[in-house]
Amino acid sequence: MPNKYKTLMLLPIISLFLAGCTIQDLPVIGGLFGGGGKTTEPVTLVFWGLWEDSGVMNVLIQKYQEQNPNVTINYEDRSIMTTVDYKERIFTRSQQSSGIDLALVHNTWVPDLVTLLAPMPKNLMDVSQYTTSYYPVAAQSAVFDGEIYAVPAYYDGLVLVYNKKHFKEIGQNFPPTAWEEFRRLAIELTVRGPDGELKRGGAAIGTAKNIDHSTDIVGLMMAQAGIAVPEQMDTKPAQDALTFYTNFAKVDKVWSEAMPNATEAFTKEQASMIFVPTWQILDILKAMPNINDVGVAAVPQALIDNPVSWGSFWMYAVPSNSTNSAVAWDFINFLAQPEQQQLYFSEASKIRAFGPPYSAVSLKDTVANPYITPVLDSAPFAKSSEIAGRAGNRRQADALNTSIEEVLSGASAKDALSRAKVEIEK
């Protein structure tokens, strides 16, 4: 090509640079330099997920592939693995040549994964857009130094599930909104046999071994007291929170380690109130003799005018060693759009009682489902930490559960939490 023609072709580019544009702003050339995540070259993404039916995910994948026919997405459901093993595998693969292009990760893992993740390209979404699109706890979990490292696949957290029939027996028409009201109801709802044996627990709370989400409940109480975990776990407010929790079993005796697992006890009407995330409500509805007896409410508060709830949810992230990180992020951005979230909810609702609660703030008021509305209503003031249970955080959860058991056995909350803090900070 003659030099004069090369010069003529460069003139528009030079003028754009002088106007303050970057090469990514150019519609064709910018794409070649990774500006938009789009490419016409064949790309195959490996997508690791958990628990979601492949048929549901394939509806979303096929829709994306219709718009991007050069992209093939292989969804691999890793539900056969425990969350502990899955977490270990994610951390290990993210440090090696993993072959994973995007994966579902728990929100509490992201701070420790940051150096192993590829941040979201800023042309897809900036931090300002992110903080207005999702609940604050998502940004607290995944935004660091002006970079976005994960996007919530959906939102979830603790809710109070209660037996409406049991409430009617004591003339209670509404769920409790404050902890002291909750405590009073738990005592009143408790039923004992002639020998004093616990027949029905007013609430499954106060122990560790037979409560799946014991660390989440204690974490909620600590968050409501303004305690940073693990930094302030050995402070007096943290000790008070743990003592308040264990007193339900130790002093009020509304629950005991002799009772069945909390969720099983609730479905067998041996517990009147339990705390679970919404995904566990699906199991409850399947096992409950009469689903009309199942009520769901937001968690009780320590201070009504300063509410704090508990979030524990899963997010999409891209390992930094992915060879297709730009395309992987483009797919995540596609999944994050409200239209796709609604499609996800709709498809999942075809095979179970309801789909995953929306992570997009803009969709909150479109939900009219009594099982998930409470968790979305409380999402704007949710907190979270690495003591979240059923999330693969075995070391942290075990440390806190051990402190619960130690207090029940007579140890001081101060000593028990001091030991837990050392273990969690390792």
Report what the structure shows.
- The protein is an alpha/beta fold.
- It folds into 3 domains: 1-25, no CATH class; 34-156 and 313-366, D-Maltodextrin-Binding Protein, domain 2; 158-310 and 393-424, Periplasmic binding protein-like II (D-Maltodextrin-Binding Protein, domain 2, 3-Layer(aba) Sandwich).
- It is built from 18 helices and 14 strands.
- The strands form 5 sheets. A 5-stranded mixed sheet has the order 2-1-3-13-6. Strands 10-7-11 form a 3-stranded antiparallel sheet. A two-stranded antiparallel sheet has the order 4-5.
- α3 (54-67) packs antiparallel against α15 and α10 (214-224) crosses α11 (236-250).
- The termini are far apart.
Short description:
With 426 residues, the chain is of the alpha/beta class. It has 18 helices and 14 strands.
Structure summary, number of beta strands:
14
Look at the structure and give the mean pLDDT.
91
Low-confidence stretches: 1-35
- Whole-number tally of structural domains: 3
| CATH architecture verdict of the largest domain | 3-Layer(aba) Sandwich
For this structure, the CATH topology of the largest domain is D-Maltodextrin-Binding Protein, domain 2
Q: How would a crystallographer describe the biggest sheet? A: 5 strands, mixed
CATH superfamily of the largest domain: Periplasmic binding protein-like II
Overall morphology: globular
Q: How far is the N terminus from the C terminus? A: 63 Å
Strand content: 5-15%
